Amino acid sequence: MERRDFIRVCAASALGLGNQGTFAAADAQPRRYARTQLTDESGQPLRASRLTAGENYVFHYPFEGTPCFLINLGKATTQNVTLKTGDGASYQWPGGVGPQRAIVAYSAICSHQLTYPTRQISFISYRDRSTASKISKPNMIHCCSEHSEYDPAAGAKVMGGPAPQPLCAILLEHERATDTLFATGTLGGEMFNTFFSKYEMRLAMEHGSPARAQQRVTGTTTVTALAKFCKQQVRC
Ligand code: FES
Fold it and tell me: Do residues 73 and 220 make contact, with C-beta atoms less than 8 angstroms apart?
């Protein structure tokens, strides 16, 4: 459990918000980070309408070292999906954003054993009908490490494999007048502290130092197609 979640659960318990005196997990509240504009690789504001449906895009948020997927699913997502973290805290994922409510973002760190896309290789990605296989169902985010599968149209709910909880959702805002996108926070089970300690050495090499990887993203964050971001995509 992330420290903030632990404190929140303890606070709820101390205030008598638990279930009739028995210990109950508090609801998982959204965690707000800096409102950050998504840009293309030339630094220009990313236009939501330019996202290719079914393509995997990567950006980093809320820390310099934590990758996220941005996906235009091509059709409206389910709205207000009730989900639970691995600790039993419930939360409601609001749904996709954009004109069709089809654009979603999630932490790209698998909730099982924290596989994530690096510049060299990615074992986890969204698979549409054209890239799904006998192992990975279409229109799911699939992790080829041990085959956890998440439904991005339903808050990254776990659909298969050993994952103990959904991928942590990244909260997005779509500014209709400019067709631009902003990340504003996270919702669900964050695993960033565990991620930073597990991959301390690797993240230091990738980002220059552990402190740099843990630096909060502010202002803008660059969106890159996964195919360009990493050299090899493993598709099981
Ligand atoms: S790390 Fe993704 S399924 Fe095990």
Answer: no
pLDDT tens track, the chain, 236 positions: 344 444 443 343 333 333 333 445 668 899 999 999 999 999 999 999 999 999 999 999 999 999 999 999 999 999 999 999 999 999 999 999 998 999 999 999 999 999 999 999 999 999 998 888 888 899 999 999 999 999 999 999 999 999 999 999 999 999 999 999 999 999 999 999 999 999 999 999 999 999 999 999 999 999 999 999 999 999 89
Residue nearest to atom 3 of ligand 1 (CA): 146
- 103: domain CATH number is 2.102.10.10
Q: Considering only CA atoms, which of 222, 128, 150, 152 is closest in space to residue 181?
A: 222
- Closest residue by Cα to residue 85 from 144, 27, 38: 27
Q: With respect to residue 30, please indicate whether it lies within any of the assigned structural domains.
A: no
> What pTM was estimated for this model as a whole?
0.89
How remote is the CA of residue 177 from the centroid of ligand 1, in Å?
A: 39
Task: Tell me the residue range of the domain where 80 lies.
Answer: 35-233
Residue 121 within a domain: yes
Residue 216 lies in a domain: yes
Index of the ligand 1 atom closest to the CA of residue 115? 1
Domain count, the chain: 1
